[in-house]
Amino acid sequence: MSLSVGERLGPYEILAPIGAGGMGEVYRARDTKLDRDVAIKVLPAALAQDPERLARFEREAKVLASLNHPNIAQIYGIEDRALVMELVDGETLRGPLLLETALNYSRQIANALEAAHEKGIIHRDLKPANIMVTPAGVVKVLDFGLAAVAQSSDPSNPATSPTLTISPTRAGMILGTAAYMSPEQARGKPVDKRADIWAFGVVLFEMLTGTQLFHGETVSDTLAQVLTKEPDSEQVPAKVRRLLQACLRKDPKQRLQAIGDWKLMLPEDGFANQHETKPSLHWILPGVAASLALIAGVALSGWLRPAAPGPRMVVRLSATLPVATNIPGPIAVSRDGSRLAFVAGPKGQIFVRMIDQLEATPIPRTEGAGFLCFSPDGTWISYIDMSVQPNKLKKIAIDGGPAQVLADALNTIGPPTQDWGLDDNILFSSNGVLMRIPAAGGTAETLATPDPAKKEIFYLTPQLLPGGKQILFGSALASANPGRGGMIAALNLRTGEKKVLVRNVSANPRYVPTGPGSSAGYIVYYTSQTGSLMAVAFDASRMEVKGSPVAVLDGVQGYSNSPFALMGISDSGTLAYVGGGPGAGLPTPLIWVDRKGVEQPLPAPARTYSSAKLSPDGQRIALMVVGQGLQVWVYDLARGTLHNVTAEGDGAAPIWTKDGKRLIYAPSNGTSLVWAPADGSSAPSMLTGVEKGRMVPTSVSPDGKMVIGFYTSGELWVVPLPDGSSGNAKPQSFLDSRSQKAEPAFSPDGHWVAYRSDETGNREIYVAPYPGPGGKFLISTEGGTSPHWSDDGRELFYRSSDKMMAVDVQTSPEFRAGTPKILFAGTFGNSFDLSSDGKRFLMIKPPAITQRSADQVTVVLNWFDELRRRVPTAK
Q: Which residue in 209, 452, 636, 687 is a FRET match for 224, CA 20 to 30 A apart?
């Protein structure tokens, strides 16, 4: 049946025809229920009543439904004898391509075929017309199990000859496209997966040369060439000749037997060596001066061919991020250096860009992403979803689709970081504990936990080292030396033994090799105080550091207020980073901000402050200082003094008791609450025993008898405060646990609690009666965090993105709320407190960062050659 633009097929509105041929018609359509574009494939009118064709159509749906793979176009369902499929935007595969690009596409094609073969499915019609490449460089194999939509009905053109499909099951009949079918297909013999391997070889030849391997004036002439012509492998780079010959043996018994073995036909250096042809300059990133074009071309020509003796030219290119953003987010580079991923835009969305292309492609529904990592094959990205509590470790295909939640990645203690290893496990840190989970999903396994006796606060940045037996990681320590309170260590996965490699450094290491699979390389880490990358030679086979760390790159911007650089490094030697000054470990000034947004700095000593709470009398500020190992300090506004409450330990998220004599906080290595005299006159004492999760206290009731807070897993709790100095109270749940909740705050009359919840899918502010029961009230309209009540209970304040919001409220005799209004906007931390008169806000200002341009990424090719010149290699 034919469809017209504007016609409806169930919930699908036809937008435009895409293609048509002897075996089907394809249309672009809009799914009005899920608000997405899809491809609709229908049988032509001549075949719509043919029972065999209808059976084939249904079989294609079942075949595609059984194949869930990022390199295979997905099927969404059947609607009135029409297939509803994933719409793959991009171009059909065509050559000639650079060897690295061709091998990258070959890997993805082979992965798709291997997934099908493992399920007993043979494609039978692999050809460039059935292979799409998205703008992000992702290959999609189309039309499994059924003839492809022909691009032309001209029978004299063998490249677009109609797929011959008399019967796929009866011997003696032909199935396939003339120029790409195997000899056994051409003879009408039964075929198996080795027919796909033949077609894979033919497609590889065409990718590399840009010419069709078998072609004649007619289809018969083309079939004759398939049966008699021996391919000329001299036309392709020497590196792939063995592979091509193994795929194109006319006797299937002599052919490569499994598509997954294709890489075994390449030299042992894998993808390290590149081919000899001259690369084009079309891929050079925007922002490169015209005067660099010739130099870049010469350098890249050397980079893309087998390494010659002597160092190669290091090339620096400037890439403009295609999204307006003040502070770029995390960056990642695929292992082969072909893709760059970054977080940008007002909502922190992931974008992917092929290095050899100009445009970046957003990945839908990845807002709030942080700490990116490519899968080893470059087709997936794992990331931390920072938009929900607790943070989630997720993965998503680079061409989009639904994200898969793998695990909670809590970040109350230490940033949640992760790495996707060659063993197809993802290493990550959750609340400072090293974890491991299969990339396919499963149960997370604890690998290592910080040792409080050694002043270890949290572990982070785990990375699987060559050989798969050791993990490199960083450890943050309680220290009075900001930015240097850490160490770099290795964990033996078999014995659990930890070995310290580098001391007194920022704890954010990354191992980079000197060559593919090499165990001799470098440990690279970022120093947030200077904005520099440091490197030290490292032998991963002996777990030995050689020499002393050396500064190898200055002017690297840090990520927000964390010890991480905005950078990514590939195994092939490509470095990408955001230039500028340091972004972490710098002082974060305390400021007053009035209701119009006018700032007034406080003369507090320079520290990296993370939270600030005014005492009940407004004369002191309880502070959490990040750069000093998550410790609690108190600043006296009148005297200008700053003293440490946790000098003998550590703590996070301090709040005041109502009498202003004590501070309640959470030990950074425990799942409990403690309190201590605010003047530091005695040691902390326990409020609770060890609980089911990490606890964050946020508010004390007006009568001083209860403290309320949340578990980082997203549940609210209340704890009675003891009469004496210590106790062992049991937290009691407050409200239900059907959604993630956090940041509860008592109203001044004690009858209401404001809190944050994600029950609508967005973080919003709600108010519920305390202790209940009763219905809740939605306060915010466009997102909200950090609710605070005015002292008179007539206003409720919260943050919405970079805006300070205020809502008029009434708490008695019943609760009422007005319309939220914006007081001011500005770049401040979400942590704030309110003066007793409600006229000023105590806030933390992010560090001033000197940056070249917030929308520029510098890409350095052959950076490992520069490393080798600056730092002697471990041998």
A: 209
Nearest to 254 by CA among 311, 211, 197: 197
Candidate CATH numbers 3.30.565.10, 2.60.120.20, 3.40.50.620, 2.120.10.30; the one for domain 321-585+852-870: 2.120.10.30
For the segment(s) 590-844, the CATH number from 2.120.10.30, 3.90.1310.10, 1.10.10.10, 2.70.98.40 is 2.120.10.30
Report the C-alpha gap between 245 and 243 in whole angstroms.
5
Please provide the average confidence, as pLDDT, over all residues in the chain. Answer: 80
Q: Is the peptide bond before 589 cis (omega within 30 degrees of 0)?
A: no
Rounded Cα–Cα distance for residues 874 and 854 (Å): 36
Q: Which residue has the tokens 């002897």?
A: 22
pTM of the model as a whole: 0.49
Supply the pLDDT for residue 300: 28
- Rounded CA-CA distance 832/588 in Å is 13
Q: Are 185 and 126 a contacting pair, CB within 8 Å?
A: no
Q: Cβ–Cβ contacts within 10 Å for residue 20, how many? A: 17
Model confidence band, residue 397 (pLDDT cutoffs 50, 70, 90): very high
Instruction: Write the DSSP string, 58-94.
Output: HHHHHHHHT---TTB--EEEE-SSEEEEE---SEE--
Q: What pLDDT was estimated at residue 44?
A: 67
Lowest mean pLDDT among 157-171, 229-243, 252-266, 437-451: 157-171
- Rounded Cα distance between 119 and 123, Å, is 11
* Type of residue numbered 263: K
Q: Which stretches does DSSP call E strand in 712-782?
A: 716-720, 732-734, 741-746, 752-757, 764-769, 777-778
The residues that are catalytic are 125
Rg (CA), the chain: 31
pLDDT tens figures, 560-607: 656 678 889 988 888 888 876 555 456 788 999 999 999 999 998 878
**Closest to 372 in 3D by CA, of 402, 326, 403:** 403
CA-to-CA distance for 21 and 612, rounded, in angstroms? Answer: 68
Structural element, H or E, at residue 863: helix 863-870
Q: Residue type for 240, please?
A: V
For 300-365, what is the HEC assignment? HHHHCCCCCCCCCCCEEEEEECCCCCCCCCCEEECCCCCEEEEEECCCCEEEEEECCCCCEEECCC
